Amino acid sequence: MRVFLTGATGFIGARIVPELLAAGHQVLGLTRSDAGADRLIEAGATPHHGTLEDPASLRAGAEQADAVIHTAFDHTFSNFVQNCEKDRHAIGALGEALRGSARPLIITSGTGIGDAGPGRLAIEALFNPEHPNPRIVSEQTGNALLEAGVDVRVMRLPQVHDTVRQGLISPYIDIARDKGVVAYVGDGANRWPAAHVLDVAKLYALVLDQGTMGARYHAVAEQGISARAIAEVVAAGLGLPTVSLSPEEAPGHFGWFAMFAALDMPASSDWTRAQLGWEPTGPGLITDLEAMVYAPIEVPA
How far is CA 244 from CA 147, 169, 177, 236, in A? Predict the structure, then answer.
């Protein structure tokens, strides 16, 4: 198949490219820069210039493809709500290009949208319309396209990590560096699921080749690592103390991050593994946090 991959030069997308090529697919990769185009060509993919802000460029890419994998997302978390709305428009544009065909569209969401209730693991079969994560609009848009006959499949992500980036934990580290302390809320018992980026990339390729219309998949290698365990390893890496904050103190310390800091978000991937035979093999989140270099980095465009 010829696969249109958004986010093809990004943290996850750049790892998906070789997985797709190894499976015999051709890759048309979205890029907003000439430097990104050069990286795609070097990787064996064909560049397609466009941006999330230009729906016409997204439609044009999807119209050339047999399938679409959408991983691009604006990770400026201080504008998270607005960026979720941007993702809604992007998914809508991609879906319109595929309407009336059997070509699959794999979209990206978060495991929390499958929240089964306090203390319980999020599961693939559930869609929680009341979940506070603004990224729920991605799945809502996917649901509408599914009802219109588009072959939508949903990849739900945990904290995706290597020794350079760790999802929401990367900005958490920046906040700790700025504040001079590594904070958690209450006793820090709330949990976040995680998976290594290479395992996540493999799962995207499996969902393309073996997934089914309307299904949701959880890229979860570890069901839940406590906020306190994360804070302690980050504190060791930064050489800073840890501190417990009350829920009332959290917004003043964390700012925009406060909406995530105390969430308990454990998640299962049992169904995903059974359906696709996915078995993650990468290092765990704590292992990667222990091995990382605790210095600010610049992420390429």
Answer: 45, 17, 16, 16
Could you give phi then psi for residue 131, rounded to 5 degrees?
A: -65, 135
CA-based nearest residue to 189, from 226, 223, 158 = 226
More confident residue, 274 or 297: 274
Q: 280 to each of 86, 255, 277, 298, how far by Cα in Å?
A: 31, 34, 10, 28
Residue 191 CA from chain centroid, whole number: 17
pLDDT tens, 214-266? 999 999 999 999 999 999 999 999 999 999 999 999 999 999 999 899 999 99
From CA 295, how far away is CA 299, in angstroms rounded?
Answer: 13
Percent of the chain with pLDDT over 90: 91
Residue 281 burial by CB count (10 A; 0-12/13-18/19+): exposed, middle or buried?
exposed
The 10 Å Cβ neighbour count of residue 30 is: 28
- Say whether pLDDT at 291 is over 60: yes
- Burial class of residue 252 (count of CB atoms within 10 Å of its CB; 0-12, 13-18, 19+): exposed
Number of H helices and number of E strands within the chain?
12, 12
